[in-house]
Fold each of these.
Amino acid sequence: MDVNELLRQYAEGKRDFGFVDLQGARLSGRYLAGIALYQANLRGAILTQADLSSANLRQADLQGANLSQANLRGANLRRANLKAAVLEGAILEGAILTGARLPDGSLYQLRPPEEEFFEEICPEEATPEESPSSSNDPQINQAPNPDSPTVLSGSDAAMPLLNRLSAIRPGQAPVVWAPLLFEWLGFGTFGLLLALNQASGFNWLIAWLSSLCWLGGDALTWFIPIIAAIAVFNAAGISVVTLATAGLIALTLLLTLRVMLGWSAWKALRDSLWVGGMVFVLVQLVGWLFYGADAYSGGGIVVAFSTLHLAGLLVLAVGLTSLGAPAWEPMIAQGFSRQRAAAIVSLVSAAGLLCGKVISLF
């Protein structure tokens, strides 16, 4: 999408421009308050003095972008890439920067709450660098507060502030256990389904590798439950009609998004495959829920009691895994490397599959 088309649609009231490709776009001084540019490509974009107040720039790629004197008041910059971006004079009052990659390449991270609490009750124990009396510069020594106004009025003020806010201690960052618990329960249920269907080692491997889809791109996170479910269906037997139906829908959607709507090839392919995968899983699930082979002879469509328990387990597995799929996100936001997060997620999913296998033995 070019700049003129975006501005025209924005003037007509459209606000959602997620995933749009605006690399190198010139939007200096433009009024774009409330615009949604989540996961958009804004590398090298010129956004000087642009009004991006309350904008949704979550996971946007702003590497090398010029945001000097831009109004980012209340903007969502969670996990955005601001590496090498120019933020001189930018207004960041109320902006959300959790997990964002800052201009110096570091990750934004507030100091752990326990450290701030310790300094409040024991100020005499504070280190000279953190003690209010060690410097006359209140901006550098004041504890960061995400709700307080933050105005970057120059490179000398901006970079020390961003460097201070980016201080991160991965060793002290606690793992968020709730999504990992869902991940373990979801893959445990998938493991039980694989064991009940006497799956081969290949299907077990595919199910386990699905937990690492997000390494190929953040948006691929939502392929995790679909691929794991396909591994189960592959072990149980895939209907050719179901495969052809899902393939036809995916191909039709791909052509529509790519040719008619002008989406990028990767985005159109990714979303088409996701929809096709969902259709495949749903149609196969219906086959486990109902038996209609005798419909034409007057038998009607009846509940398939022989596979009803498998259908229930599949719904449970997909639901739990969907809740646990983004388990890597809070870990990355807390300072874990992608490799470390991947190791934790892979171990949890492997443990879940193994537990499902053990449960099937009883």
Note: The CA atoms of residues 187 and 276 lie 22 Å apart.
Amino acid sequence: METSNFEIVTREDFSDVTYLLEVRHPLMAKAAKPGQFVIVMLNEQGERIPLTIADFDKKKGTVTLVIQAVGKTTRQMQQECKVGTRLYGMVGPMGIPSPMSHAKKVICVGGGLGVAPIFPQARGFKEAGAYVIAVLGFRNKDLVFWEDKFRSACDELILCTNDGSAGMKGMITDGIKIALAGHPDVEEVVAIGPPIMMKAAADATRAAKIKTMVSVNPIMVDGTGMCGGCRVKVGDQVKFACVDGPDFDGHMVDFDDLMLRLSRYTKVEKNAHERWSESCRMTKQVGPSALDALGLSKQGRGQSELLELPDPFDDAPGG
């Protein structure tokens, strides 16, 4: 069988559950625009998973993905995707690119894993001549990533951590309030992160009627609008994130319905992860030395804890 060309050229781990893969794909890197996503297959029998494009380099011919290990496939990718290995399939770029409006001053909000895909949008606004304020949120300083990238691409950076170990102590909404207080002339807010965070960001700008765009990433199967799995209620209409989005008006998205739909698959995903964990014998036959070799061992942490899944609706560590 012919070997795929989707070679992983860079791997970086931000935390126990969040990692970066830079994949060589010259044609996709040339075509990619902020806000788009790809569908990836780890192997021939693997599921198709949608991943937002976190960055792209047209000169190097690479596309960057930042992934959170929240399920069976993303955890398997965390173990198997090393520099020099290849993905079986990678389709894209898909979705409608984020519209670069003519706003003169914008706030780009990223929470946890959403920090990665908000970066190309922040850079795009800056290249278009806007004054860009980045508001980034993490649980603590050990989970902060890409701070330097944002400082180089934005005019201001407000860094928030839950415990105050880096930047200011507070939530994303606290950072938004500070940004709006200092810049009452902000024309647009763009937010990417867990659904509950994007809902909070939209609520924070609703009273002031500031245009607020969010990136919605529900369950996707085919990425063409045929399966209907990614439908989202936007106002009184039903949209499909893969072909109509993923960006929508945050003041119109029904986040409660979105989170309810996503939660329906949590039990199935956990069962799939448990079956995979048994099959790879991680919990029974892998010793500390093997865990060290995989880069998964941490002082004072048991193997069962390493296999625990983050809550996809929470601002999980690093994502």
Note: Confidence is low (pLDDT under 50) at residues 286-291, 293-319.
Amino acid sequence: MTKPTDKTPWQTQSAGESDQGERLDKWISQWTELSRSRIRDLIEAGHVRADGDIITKPTLKIRAGIEYAIQIPPPVDDTPRPENIPLNILYEDDQLIVIDKTSGMTVHPAPGSRSATLVNALLYHCGDTLSGINGVLRPGIVHRLDKDTSGVMVVAKSDKAHNYLAKQFAKHTIDRIYTCLTRGVPKPRSGRIESRLARNNKDRKKQAVVAGTFGDMEASDHGRHAITHYKYIRGFGQAQNASVGTPKVSQIECQLETGRTHQIRVHMAHIGCPLLGDPLYGQQRAFLTNKSDAEQSVATAIAAFKRQALHARHLGFIHPVSKEHMTFDAPIPRDMQDVIDVLKTL
């Protein structure tokens, strides 16, 4: 929220008898025409006064005869600014740029992450050559990776490239292969997951498989069609109370046919193999139980891994101008490789 200056005016209103007992945030929203959530933020930030005294509780009751005042900060300029942030560039020409995104980097500005995004870095590196199709907040962005997912991304530097790449994504002809580490092992070890995905009714930050649509797309018309192909690569350790050969952790390769929000994370959790470190869909209970040195080392490594174990390893597409089929691969990043190295000791 932008801080007000000494020159920012205060809007005032005196409470009458009919206002007595109204909630502060509700009453102020009526005469400022701001949303109650916006009013609550301003109250909690100290931008509301009662007879000159700062008040910070949105639930306070209005008292007749008191003059209330609110100071509304000027609007935030949402235009991203270029920032000199290093990029791991795999390829670049006048039409597009391919990068290996690090985990921890948000792709485009959003509330709570207005700076240090991939867009800020691209604006510094590319100047005004990025495609403008998605507007000033998402210049050049054709697809995205979650903040804590690492790996290959392609960004458009011209509107022609943006349109051509977007059509490939829409037709599901882009090759996208991810490496992930999951608890347990999928059954069967290779397969196709098909469902509809929609926002979780109980947690707006999460996506969920629409009830009844796992393997039956016609069971509902709610949500978006999502298809993930997965393949077991190798396992680590022996799961307790399971048949011999059942690993504690599996390295899985996922190929996306569609690219919905959190798709791999939701699908793998749905089949009982949540990604290690996933704060939304992972099982956060203690990981290992016996006292061997190897398992204690693994427990320590996994506890220190603060993101979902998901890496966009491979990206393939048709170049918008040359029509050449281009492929790019990004090695597993150091933090994820460190976990794999420790898992090998089991």
Note: The mean pLDDT is 92.
